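Consider the tokenized backbone below.
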């Protein structure tokens, strides 16, 4: 186990809808406030999506991104990881625009296509605040989250042009092969940063043996790499703890899980950050500072962001 861990807080995402939790941040002010609370609790990185402040629907609005980024950067030096996943159904250009415009130190880079299914959540949730929520979830029964080799090549070009480090989101084992292919073709340079996203219907399930398999397979194909783990729902903390034991980093937050433990809802992203930091410290691991994380990941540094 290493002595420092990068703790990412995925603040709001595009999976959960407002009717699922009254604590899900929606407005730019709420998202920024949640990031700052997570930072104070020990988070190193804020993973940022934005939503329509009136309806909570995921959007790719550059003014909203800028407002959130400015509010965070005016208060602290945490690393901002902007999504390039956006919301389900967004085009490649919509998803890449925040990278081109804000040139972040790091951004998510989805490493392959998947059946990103959320429709089964309707078995649990029946009442919603907004009409779009039920329709948004229903459509995923017949939805592919597309990340073709052509689009991934374009993503790599835009990331390289803007000095943005890819955080490769790996939902299943075949995506490791995709990363290896892009390295061999020269689209991506090593060392790479991989985040294993586990427990999404359509991807690999969140089981300890599956994480071991992913790590072993990635090591065979890629060699040395830095990694992080996030998991959907109740598997969040067990899988993150396993990542800590195996020398990895962790991601928590309301994007991935609305609960703290049992049936208790997390009232804030900071609740989950506080819990995983406590677990890490019990293992003798401290949260990395933003500057320590920048060195660990080889980021360009905030001073080199030019908008």
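A designed sequence for it:
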């Amino acid at each position: 186990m290493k002595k420092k861990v990068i703790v990412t807080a995925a603040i709001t995402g595009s999976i959960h809808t407002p009717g699922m939790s009254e604590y899900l941040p929606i407005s730019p002010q709420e998202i920024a406030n949640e990031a700052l609370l997570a930072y104070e609790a020990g988070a190193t990185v804020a993973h940022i999506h934005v939503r329509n402040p009136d309806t909570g629907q995921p959007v790719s609005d550059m003014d909203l991104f800028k407002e959130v980024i400015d509010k965070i950067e005016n208060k602290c030096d945490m690393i901002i990881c902007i999504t390039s996943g956006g919301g389900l159904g967004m085009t490649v250009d919509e998803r890449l625009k925040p990278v081109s415009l804000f040139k972040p130190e790091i951004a998510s880079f989805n490493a392959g296509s998947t059946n990103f299914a959320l429709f089964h959540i309707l078995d649990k949730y029946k009442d919603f605040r907004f009409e779009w929520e039920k329709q948004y979830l229903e459509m995923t029964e017949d939805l592919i989250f597309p990340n073709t080799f052509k689009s991934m090549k374009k993503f790599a070009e835009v990331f390289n042009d803007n000095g943005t480090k890819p955080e490769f989101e790996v939902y299943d084992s075949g995506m490791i092969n995709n990363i290896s292919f892009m390295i061999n073709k020269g689209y991506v340079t090593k060392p790479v940063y991989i985040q294993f996203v586990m427990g999404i219907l359509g991807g690999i399930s969140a089981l300890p043996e599956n994480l071991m398999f992913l790590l072993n397979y990635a090591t065979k194909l890629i060699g040395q790499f830095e990694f992080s783990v996030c998991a959907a729902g109740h598997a969040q903390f067990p899988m993150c703890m396993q990542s800590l034991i195996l020398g990895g980093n962790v991601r928590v937050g309301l994007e991935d899980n609305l609960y703290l433990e049992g049936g208790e809802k997390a009232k804030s992203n900071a609740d989950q950050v506080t819990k995983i930091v406590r677990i890490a410290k019990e293992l003798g691991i401290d949260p990395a500072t933003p500057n320590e994380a920048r060195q660990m990941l080889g980021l360009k540094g905030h001073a080199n962001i030019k908008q």
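The mean pLDDT is 96.
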